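To whoever is on call:

I kicked off a structure prediction for a single chain this morning and the downstream step that reads the tokens threw a length-mismatch warning. I double-checked the sequence; it's 173 residues and nothing unusual in it as far as I can see. Pasting both halves so you can look.
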Amino acid sequence: TAFKQLFTDEIQQQDEFVNDCTIDTDLEILIPDTYVENITERLSLYNRLDNCANEEDLKTLHNEMQDRFGSIPPQVEDLFLTVRIRKIAIQLGFERLVLKDKILKCYFISKPDSPFFESAIFQNILQYIQTALRNAQLKQTGKFCILTVDDMNDMEQLHQFLQKMSNTISLKK
């Protein structure tokens, strides 16, 4: 068992197939200078937002910003959603999300030989796509496996979509 404990950390790390997910969108997701005028302050808030480890951290920062700067504009609410979306996307094995012209493209891990594609997570996602999604298709483009979803209007809808997918596939473990 001592031998097994040595490798427990490494085995757990292998379960996290993706370390980060970039999100590219044509939506306006930012802290407007009309909301926080000082650029140093804005950069600090972006940094703090990026370093929120969990939902509690996000809520604390959200409340603090509301107290300091007033009612939070929609672009900033979307920024908070983006952090939540990134966390779910990473768990689902997405390296990149692109939301443009109401079309969402979810890029899976770019290494075709990744053990991710043999994992229960990926198998459950495939099953979910086939059984629960009407407006989605999976495509192989070069080394990329891309899930495309139509009629994705905003970050709130994207967050709900990923949350539902995550909840559904995690029930199947």
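Update from on-call: the warning came from a stale cache, not from the record. Cleared it. Sanity check on the structure: The longest strand covers residues 94-100.
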